[in-house]
Amino acid sequence: DLGTSAVKLLLMEGSGKICNIVSKEYPLFFPHPGWSEQNPEDWFTQSIEGIKELTEGIDRKEVAGIGFGGQMHGLVTLDKDDNVIRPAILWNDGRTGEETEYLNTVIGKEKLSQYTANIAFAGFTAPKILWMQKHEPENFKKVVKIMLPKDYLAYRLSGSFCTDVSDASGMLLLDVKNRCWSKEVCDTLDIDMSMLGKVYESCEVTGKVTKKMAELTGLKEGTIVVGGAGDNAAAAIGTGVAEDGKAFTTIGTSGVVFAHTSSISIDPKGRVHTCCAAVPNAWHVMGVTQGAGLSLKWFRDNFCNAEKETAKCMGVDEYYLMDKEAEKVPVGANRLLYLPYLMGERTPHLDPDARGVFFGLSAMHTKRDMLRAVMEGVSYSLRDCVEVFREMDINVSDMMACGGGGSSPLWRSMLADLYNCPVKTASSKEGPALGVALLAATGAGIYSSVPEACKAVVKTDKVQQPEAERVPEYEKYYKLYTEIYPALKAEFAKLAKM
Length: 498
Known about the structure:
Blueprint: E1 6-12, E2 18-25, E3 37-38, H1 40-54, E4 65-66, E5 69-70, E6 76-78, E7 88-89, H2 97-116, H3 125-135, H4 137-141, E8 145-147, H5 149-158, E9 162-164, H6 165-168, E10 174-175, E11 180-181, H7 183-188, E12 198-200, E13 205-208, H8 211-217, E14 224-226, E15 229-230, H9 231-238, E16 246-251, E17 255-261, E18 273-276, E19 283-289, H10 292-303, H11 305-314, H12 318-327, E20 337-339, E21 357-359, H13 367-391, E22 398-402, H14 403-406, H15 409-419, E23 423-426, H16 431-443, H17 450-457, E24 460-464, H18 470-497
Parallel strand pairs: 4-14, 5-15, 9-12, 16-22, 22-23
Antiparallel strand pairs: 1-2, 3-7, 6-8, 10-11, 13-14, 16-17, 17-19, 18-19, 20-21, 23-24
Helix pairs in contact: 1-5, 2-3, 9-16, 10-11, 10-13, 11-12, 12-13, 13-15, 16-17
C-alpha cells in the first residue's frame, strides 16, 4: 500500500491470517507553495527493502502473488529508456487550478461526465498532464510512458506496463462505463494513447516477477503480479465492501463515504466521483468531505489543553476523554450546529470558499456542547454524501466505519442514527494492504472471486445499531443543517474576496 508518507507491506496466508506487516517511510517535497512531489526511486528502494524485511524467515519461493495499492492520481512520466523524467506530481498538489478550470469550462463538465463519469478536480491526473505540456514542454517531449504511482512499482517488478480500472478511474482519461481509455478525451487533450498502459481488472494477473527482481528480492521468478487498486477501492475490499448495499465511511483528516454498486450511476452535478470498483463489472461512488477529522483535531489543538494534560496523567488517548465529555450532551448539542467547512467543501457543495460555522451559539453553551456540535456537524456532512447516493438510486444498508474517527464509539453511534442502518468495524484495521492481498489471492486462484475472498477473510468486530428514539431527533437537526449553507453561500464568496 503505497501511501503518501510510507509504503505499508503486508504478508497474508491463503486463509487470511496476517503473518507480518512492515512500514517504510520516504520524503515528501514541496518545491513551491501548494506543490507536492515525491521521487519514484524512493518508493522503489523502500518497497524492495520492505519486501526483504517482510519475508524474512519464510521460504520466499512460497509467495503466490503480489498486489499493489496506494495513493491515486499522481503523475509519473518515463522516457524511452524508462528513466523517470521529473519527480512525481502527487494527488494533493495544488498547481493545476487553471488546467482544471479549462477542463470544466472549455471541454465542459457535461462532456467530461459523459466520457469519464467525473468532472475535473485539481487532484486528478489529466490536469497535471496539461500543466506539464504547458509549463515543461521540453520534458513533455521526452514522455513515452505515463503511469500512476503504484503502477510504477508494478512495472519495475514485472516489466508489465499497465494499470487497473479503479486507479485509472481517477485520471480523468478512462471511459469508466466501458472500462477502457476514452479516445475522445485523449484526442481532445492531445495525449497519445500509446503513452498509457494496458487496462486490467484489479484481480487479473498483469505480469510476473522478472529474473532481475527475483534476484534482488529473493522472490521466485514468475511469481504473479495482479492489477491491484487505488487506495479507496483497495480499502473497500479490505473492509468487505464488495456487494450492493455495502459501503464504508472513513473519518481521517477528510471524510470519505464509499458505496459499491453493480450498475453504473453518475451524478450529473459532479458532487460525487463514480469509478470502476476493484470487483470486475462493478463500480463505486465516493463522496468526500474536506474537514472531517480535521475539525475535531482543530478543536482539540485550540480548546482541549486540559483534556490533553489529564489524558497524559491517566495514560489514555485525549480523544477518548473528548468522547466522554461529548457523551454528556444531548442530541443536537443543546441547539448548537456546526458546519465543518474549514477547508471549503467538496460533496455536495463543490465550494472552495465555504468556511466553518457555529450556528446558534448562546451564553448557555459550554466547551462540551461545542465539542459535541463539531462531531455531529461532521456526521451531518457525511450524511450529505449518502443523500447524493440515494438520489442516484444507490441505497446503503450495511456500513463499515474506518479511519481514526471510526474507532470512536460515539461517532459510530451518530453515524448509525443518521444513516439509519448498522455501522460496523472490521476486526482487521489493515484496509488497503489487506484489500490488495485479497486481490492477489484471487488472481492466484486461492479464491474464485473477490466477493468470495472478502466473505472468507473480512470479519466484523463491533456493530452499532441505530437507536429508534434518536433517529427522528437527529433528522430534525440534519434538516436545519442542510438549510444553513445555502443561506450563507453568497456571503462565503464575499468573504473570500475581502
